[in-house]
Design a protein that fits this description.
Length: 121
């Protein structure tokens, strides 16, 4: 990202503008407590199948707001994916296309998490 900012800076400065960038890490890291993380993994494996659940590359910089929530209540931050390939546009890109077919199964997964957590079978 820094390299891309440097490239953009050069382009903008060629047009006669001055640029400055400042970045800081002023948020807490998101660290999932083991109990909560294992809960999500267990339910996800039951719901989606073990072959579709993984840890992925860590660490991941995201959801700084969730880190503050977790100072008050334990929780697990996780990603649900669409199963698309690496070539698919990422969320927040201008050509991202949300797959509406994922709404129902994702809602059912969240319901499974809640039912399991509160033993509501």
């Amino acid at each position: 990202m820094v390299q891309r900012l440097q490239e953009l800076t050069k382009e903008v400065e060629k047009e006669g503008f001055r640029t400055e960038f400042y970045a800081s890490d002023s948020w807490l890291p998101v660290i999932n407590p083991l109990n909560e993380a294992n809960h999500v993994i267990r339910v996800a494996e039951q719901f989606y199948g073990k072959d579709k659940v993984g840890v992925g590359l860590l660490p991941v910089r995201s959801s700084e707001d969730f880190s503050y929530f977790c100072t008050q209540k334990p929780g697990a931050f996780f990603f649900l994916t669409s199963g698309k390939t690496e070539d698919s546009p990422m969320i927040h890109s201008n050509n991202f296309d949300f797959n509406d077919d994922l709404i129902e199964p994702t809602g059912k997964f969240w319901l499974a998490l809640v039912r399991d957590r509160f033993e509501l079978a």
